[in-house]
Amino acid sequence: MRRPRLLFVASLLFTQILFVCAHGAEHTRIAVTPAQVSLEGKDSSMQLLVTGYDAEDNPTDLTHLAKYSFSPGYISVSRSGVVRSRKDGDGTVTVEFDKFTAVVPVKTRHTHARLTLNFENDIIPILSRYRCNTSGCHGKAEGQNGFKLSVFGFDPVADYQAIAMEGRGRRVFPGSPQASLLLRKMSGGTPHGGGIPIPRERPEYRTIRDWIAQGLPVGSDEDATIVSLEMTPRQRIFKMGETQQLRAMATLSDGRQVDVTELTQFQTNSPNQAVVDALGHVTAGQSPGTAAVMATYMGRVDVLHVFVPREETIKSYPSSQQYNFIDDHVLNNLKKLNILPSGDCDDEQFLRRVYIDTIGTLPTAQEAREFLARKDLNKREQLIDQLLVRDEFSTYWALKWSDLLRVDRLALGHENAYLYYNWIRESFQQNKPLNQFARELLVAEGPLRESPAGLFYKAVPSAKRASTLSQVFLGVRIECAECHHHPYDRWGQKDYFGMQAFFTQLQYKPSKVGEVLLASGNPVTKHPRTGESVNAYALGTVMPEQSPEGDRRLVLAEWMTATNNPWFARNVANRTWAHFMGRGIVEPVDDVRLTNPPTNPALLEALSHHFVEADFDFRQLVKTILMSATYQRSPEVNPTNERDEQNYSRYLFKQLEAEVMLDAISQVTGRPEKFEGVPAGSRAIELWDSSVPNYFLKVFGRPVRATACECERVSEPTISQVLHVLNSPAIQKKLNHQDGRIRAIATKIADNKKAIEEIYLICFARYPNENELEAAVGHLENSDDRQLALEDVAWSVMNSLEFLFNH
Amino acid sequence: MTQQRFCDGIRRRDMLRFGAAGAFGMGLTLPSLLEHEARLKANGVDTKDTSLIIVFLQGGLSTIDTWDMKPDAPSEFRGDFTPVSTNLPGIHISEHLPKLAKIHDKFSLVRSFGHANSNHGQADHFMLTGYPSGPGFNGGLKPNNQKPCVGAVIGKELGPRGGVPPYVCLPRMHNSAGSSYLGSTATPFVVGADPNAPDFKVPDLAPPVAVASRRLNDRRSLLKTINRYEQSAITQANQGARAMRTYQEKAFELMTSEATKAAFDINSEPDVVREKYGRNMLGQSCLMARRLIEAGVRCAFVNHIDWDTHYNNFHVLKNELLPKLDAAMSSLLADLEDRGMLDSTMVLVTGEFGRTPRINKDAGRDHWGPSCAIALAGGGVQGGRVIGASNERAERPATTPFGPADLMATIYHGMGIDPEREFLTPEGRPVPIVPGTGRVISELF
């Protein structure tokens, strides 16, 4: 690759100028960076950052509040602190805020000399910054109105072709640059469907104009390339609503540093905590927590870590319960955020919660009675141990992994899909270490009947295998890099096809024992753009001289499941944590990248370490999470944590998953759901085929297993869900059924209080309180028909938030 | 309903039965609502009153026998019907659309319209999303959307208006009416019943018969007392629970509000109106669509499925289909205008493709994507225009051709939705709501 030519050259001295003021009430001093500005070349600029410090040295950004005065003629300074060269010379910028003054010397050189431009380094970043080459505009596969650019500028050769040569050359006229269609469209001279992205007065306009006038130079391979991108600041504690201007500096291969803030794209990963505008101005939100603001320029990324604590410090932070290492890490974070955790949940909440989260099943009334009656201190732990070995545990987790690993009857056929599912289910039943589970799937070979894990490769189209496995087992999305460099991560097309090359040996052959999966031959994978061969290599490793001998997948499996793999254990730990806590430490769970950092890195590290230490024992991981005080918190809110949905200061409500909710309704009413083609009495969490028709499951967001994305399972409520539980004749029928539980209660439990108690225990795993009892018993007493009145109570209970959510 | 078969041998009734199980499912979320309001404000766009009615003639309307007749073509092309004058000078349409001929000033035709797909399923997807179907497309799935249906986009973008859902399908859901990556919150609310049926009723919208209205009130007040989290700060602090509680309130509103009940109570329409629209599924569905829009629905998608006329095309059109279309569409347009709703309600009448200009051996016409006129009215579309022309045998557009992507751009333009808008797929890939080649058919406005 060639490197950016220097449009904006500036050498900097990052020493601070300090002015201490005797009268400063809030601020005791201000500091301006850089201390000196040296602008070289046409249209070069520098973003100043002005920071005020209080007596305790806490910083506040004043960049947009300070007043700038400057030597006229040589430079200009915008209100947001951007210094631009006008003419060669030496001058100063005087920065004033409150009682403070700072003077920044500025040198401008070669203001009128435009060095030879480089297409890839100087022109493409402009097209990227103004989103000309995004998939919504000219970057889409078919282009826009006949003008097509490669998405995010990943193919400079094609883009050069498109601009300089296609359209019979009418897009650019070196003889009369202003008349170029390219410039007229972007600046409003000619109607443009995309509006006026770059008006004539912008420096970017002049750059493109000059590039055309220079005769459309491609540039030279000698031109310096970008080495790294660095943002200032990179870490910052914000008050709620506080703002911060960012500066992005590119370091070039010749050692120079240039300000590229105006050509950098900024993006936040958590808008509740921080938003950022196109010019790199960050505003903190009103919810405490962390966010990452990402900067991207020419395929390089950097991140500002945003930390937004509640304003009011908690003077004496009370000690709260800590059951294991998880709680240390969570509390450390909460302390920094000035958030107090909620207290311990009560036994009733714990009981129902841990059943649903762990085995996807409600406790029975009998189980509830027994647990609530027990007085021993370690009864929660004992319950957890019991649940981990229940049959439903394997069934429930097999359902979840069948979603991700695509047990798809339509793609596999009935028999194969069932075999594949059973392999997953048995793996959880045996508590197979999860690295072994992944390895078996990765290297599966031979007759599919004996090695059903190999059906994964049948369920997922060959082009999607590498990206699916990467997303599921590593939490890393590389799918973008199939067609272009990942816009927010380090993965390029070579990395994608390096992963893909592990799977190109696979083929299915018929045999006497059915279909056989084989890995053979030495197929060559070509880079789709450069045509170079790409050997099989894992993400973040160096490509070897040749692809591994024999079944290449063995090498990948070895790497992926090694204890020091950077992603595998963290991914499983994070996914599992997210399941129980309602939110991943990295969120979304399957989008791990530098620019989407964990909200609590120490916690993720510790969980992952624990999982590795336990030899990838899944049940141990689950138990550790369940045993933490963090998991066992109450859903109650206090004034410090009512806005926190990110830092595990309380237990977050989770809507019951489609299958779990349907099972719960069947269990409560004592009437199992009937599914087509499945033995009578089967539960919804036992359905290995996600295409079994069921209206309820569909309405409640069962995934269709079409992608590797965790997000396929919809957890957002909808009005049709509400209407269905309210009015479904099928549910009413279950309530009213001759052999149903409500009728059994009506006929067998004569005492009204006891009858209501029974309904509460089966639905909520708790006894009703006095008000509830009074209302429900009152309803029974006022009714002529006890069965109908009990149905009404059960109906109301099933439509309550307490039933529809896990809490 | 007739027992005709699609050309692939599946009886439509089978398809209905197969698909009906999952036909209900729409959703509104608070976040999208808020987002919508904010976006509207930011853009200064006033879209609060725009709506769309799609009258989809599934199977494929023979446009050479209706909107785009070719009386001078050889007899094996031109067919049995005679063009008649409309109230637009020099414009003719089929003699079997006499009511529409009298009000051609209310709607416009695009005659240079077509696309390159002549398969059921794929062409449906193309026409309803603007995107051709890609590899792995399975038309039999319900929904089969690889891209969101125009109705889902409108529902998502414009959000709900009043207590009714923003996107409603009737009488059943078309297979390509789904929301794709827009998720369950953008899926249509499916009426799931024939408004022409004597016992017409929307499933789940009313409590089961066994639950009398007094019982519903009891249940509702019980629900308030026995719900531990009903009014608590805990609910307020949990997004999902907060949304669910809001929906419960909305659901009770839907169930009990006279307006909603009234919208679905097609029996309250005067008999004379019902007769005018036609006492059949198409007619009553169009009438219901008008009622729904009036109640606040953003997109009402009427799917009518008898149009695959491989056999006895002329007989079936003349005696069965065109009289229904004539009555339903003319009544709909007149009705919308009388109520002052036509300016804010766009109406699209189309099939997934046209039919072969050359008549087949069974006196029928087969599938023909390359040329199929579409009819549009209202919502900013000027009436009485005929845009473009097909060639002398209606085989392909003879003037600037328009296709499904252009149709989408045109609809979004009329709805005040930015056709350049992108949505993110679950993988985070941005996809524009209109594919790159789509441009607004500006001659309509």
- The helix fraction of chain B, in percent, is 25-40%
Largest sheet of chain B: 8 strands, mixed
Tell me, what's the shape of chain A? globular
Give the helix tally of chain A: 28
Oligomer: heterodimer
Question: Ends of chain B: how far apart?
Answer: 37 Å
* Class by SSE composition of chain A: alpha+beta
- Stretches of chain B where pLDDT is under 50 for at least 5 consecutive residues are 1-45
Elements of chain B, N to C (H/E) = HHEHEEHEHHEEHHHHHHEHEEEEEHEE
Rg value of chain A: 31 Å
Helix content of chain A: 25-40%
Let me know the largest β-sheet of chain A: 5 strands, mixed
Give a short overview.
Chain A is of the alpha+beta class.
Q: What would the keywords be for this entry?
A:
heterodimer; A: 807 residues; alpha+beta; Immunoglobulin-like; 28 helices; 29 strands; 16% strand; disordered N terminus; B: 445 residues; alpha/beta; Alkaline Phosphatase, subunit A; globular
Can you characterise this structure?
The complex is a heterodimer of chains A (807) and B (445). With 807 residues, chain A is an alpha+beta fold. Chain A has 5 domains: 101 residues, Immunoglobulin-like (Sandwich); 95 residues, no CATH class; 83 residues, Immunoglobulins (Immunoglobulin-like); 168 residues, no CATH class; 132 residues, no CATH class. In chain A, 34% of the residues lie in helices and 16% in strands. Chain A is built from 28 helices and 29 strands. In chain A, helix 1 packs antiparallel against helix 4. The two termini of chain A are 54 Å apart. The N terminus of chain A is likely disordered. Chain B has 445 residues and is of the alpha/beta class. Helices cover 34% and strands 11% of the residues of chain B. Chain B contains 14 helices and 14 strands. Chain B has an 8-stranded mixed beta sheet with strand order 6-5-7-1-8-11-4-12, sandwiched between helices. In chain B, strand 2 and strand 3 form a beta hairpin. In chain B, helix 9 packs across helix 10 and helix 12 packs parallel to helix 13. At the A-B interface, strand 28, helix 21, helix 22, helix 23 and helix 26 of A face helix 7, helix 8, helix 9 and strand 14 of B.
